[in-house]
Amino acid sequence: MLKANDPSLHSWIQIAPNSDFPIQNLPFGIFETAGKDPRVGVAIGDYILDLYAVAQNNLFELIDIDPTVFHRPYLNDFISLGKPIWRAVRNRVSELLRNDNEEISSNRELMDDCLVRMQDARMLMPVKVGNYTDFYSSIEHATNVGTMFRDPKNALLPNWKHIPIGYHGRASSIVVSGVDIRRPNGQTKAPNEDAPTFGPTKLLDFELEVAFITGRETKLGESITPNEADNYIFGLVLFNDWSARDIQTWEYVPLGPFLAKSFASSISPWVVTLDALQPFKVKGPVQDPKPLPYLEFNGHHNYDINLEVLIKPEGGKENSVCRSNFKYMYWNMNQQLAHQSSNGCNIQVGDMYASGTISGHEKDSYGSMLELTWRGTQPIKLSDGTERKFINDEDTVIMRGYGERDGIRIGFGEVKAKVLPAL
Ligand code: MN
Questions:
Q1: How far does residue 281's CA lie from ligand 1's centre (Å)?
Q2: What is the CATH number of the domain that holds 103?
Q3: 375 CA distance to ligand 1 centroid (A)?
Q4: Are 385 and 239 part of one and the same domain?
Q5: What is the domain-level CATH number for residue 374?
Q6: Would residue 339 show up in a list of annotated catalytic residues for this protein?
Q7: Mean pLDDT taken over the chain
Q8: Which residues span the domain enclosing 354?
Q9: Strand, helix or coil at 76?
Q10: I need a labelling partner for 354 at 20 to 30 A (CA). Which of 42, 61, 213, 415 fits?
Q11: pLDDT, tens digit, 9 for 90 and up, residues 141-183
Q12: CA dihedral 123, 124, 129, 132 (to 10 degrees)
């Protein structure tokens, strides 16, 4: 076990038992405040540890690292330093925050310099995303969609259990939690209409996903095996892959998703490292038929992370509409990355790879409104008495996630975004 993951560790910072950010988590993000321009921080309880301030005060002196790498608007340069450095920095931060360490805790001035209250900070995009891939790796989701749109008897297409299906998405419209989303306009054609029209989507949906961020590049022509993939994954965020179902239905033949997906995707601001998630590794679903050799792996690469989606109407209460789990994924991240690179396509630092909608077996574990309301035929009733088939203007969609083991909760915080009316 990594020392920083030891459940017996405690911090000198008071942390609520239900906090997503105990000393065993230490996720990385980019923040700014009224007095501090964008920089790297680590979440701890209700606080952010300012890593640039920590570095300027020579508290990383045993790690060979340029302090200015923490004074950047994205994590990419820090991540590029490689896994031994991320791990060394996380270990050192863990040490500095432990209740038996006085290097910061005994010095009021240093504490004021290095700690920022989360409520005083604004979180920014953690990485500059160069490339974005969206997979389709939940067998429950793929089965639900196939049942609805094709044939319940042959819901999965013949390739699905052989190949981690995915497509290349749009990186420029990935935004951080808190950024409002504009209802997109697009071309649609209902089955009973003769010709398409252009206008606001009527079927705006969320997709509950988790995305991993790569932290090491490959050269063009190289590929990664599933067993090597852990060394290429920096960390994970929650990912809401906003979707316009009516636009998608009309445009996706024959090349797949395009503008129904590219108008926006929202992510949670804290990148939870793969290191922090090690205690949550679990066995994944049985893969039958056996995958081809380049997709075979040793060990466990699924993660037991509870996921929840909530809808909050303007001025109203949060309504939980979905509870799912990242462990349901049929194809794991290591296989996804192996598949992505299997043709020699180069991997870059800061790339984002989303899981695909994560649905479970139970009806309340479906990760999209499309499935939860079964194409709008079974609307969801909210606590204010209104119904939802899809997402309305002024609704806020919130996703939360955490793993819990040995009394330690490793959380992601949340990704939250409000939908504004179309222009
Ligand atoms: Mn998706």
A1: 23
A2: 2.30.30.230
A3: 16
A4: yes
A5: 3.90.850.10
A6: no
A7: 97
A8: 132-420
A9: helix
A10: 42
A11: 999 999 998 899 999 999 999 999 999 999 999 999 999 999 9
A12: 60
In percent, the amount of the chain with pLDDT more than 90 equals: 98
CA angle 399, 402, 403 (to 5 degrees): 150
Residues 233 and 363 in one domain: yes
Query: Both 136 and 110 in a single domain?
Result: no
What are the tokens at 292?
């081809």
Tell me, yes or no, whether 94 and 215 share the same domain. Answer: no
Query: Ligand 1 center to residue 115 CA distance, Å?
Result: 36
pLDDT in tens, 20-41: 999 999 999 999 999 999 999 9
The tens digit of pLDDT for each residue in 235-291 reads 999 999 999 999 999 999 999 999 999 999 999 999 999 999 999 999 999 999 999
| Same domain as 294, residue 250 | yes
Q: Which of 124, 145, 164 is the last residue of a domain?
A: 124
- Cα of 239 vs centre of ligand 1, distance in Å, is 9
Mean per-residue pLDDT for 306-314?
A: 98
Task: Check if the beta carbon of residue 403 is closer than 8 Å to that of residue 2.
Answer: no
Helix (H) or strand (E) holding 420: strand 408-420
Q: Which tokens sit at 2?
A: 């990594």
Task: Report how far apart, in Å, the C-alpha atoms of 354 and of each of 262, 286, 287, 329 are.
Answer: 13, 21, 20, 12
Q: What angle do CA 241, 244, 246 make, to 5 degrees?
A: 150
Helix locations, 104-258, DSSP H: 108-114, 139-149, 245-251
* Ligand 1 midpoint to CA 152 (Å): 21
Q: State the chain's maximal CA–CA distance in angstroms.
A: 74
User: How many angstroms separate the CA atoms of 259 and 271, rounded?
Assistant: 27
Residue 40's nearest CA partner among 22, 54, 24 is: 54
Element (H, E) at 80: helix 76-80
Q: What pairing do the DSSP bridges indicate for beta strands 265-267 and 233-240?
A: antiparallel
- 72, 90, 124: which is the final residue of a domain? 124
**pLDDT band with cut points at 50, 70 and 90 for residue 303:** very high
Q: Give the predicted TM-score (pTM) of the model.
A: 0.98
Q: Total domain count for the chain?
A: 2
Q: Tell whether 358 and 405 lie within a shared domain.
A: yes
Residue 1: predicted pLDDT? 84
In a shared domain, residues 142 and 51: no
Catalytic position from the list 71, 141, 301, 339: 141
- Distance in angstroms (rounded) separating the CA atoms of residues 204 and 420: 11
What's the mean pLDDT in 86-93? 97
Q: Can you tell me which residue has the tokens 């990186």?
A: 171
Contact in structure between 102 and 236 (CB atoms under 8 Å): no
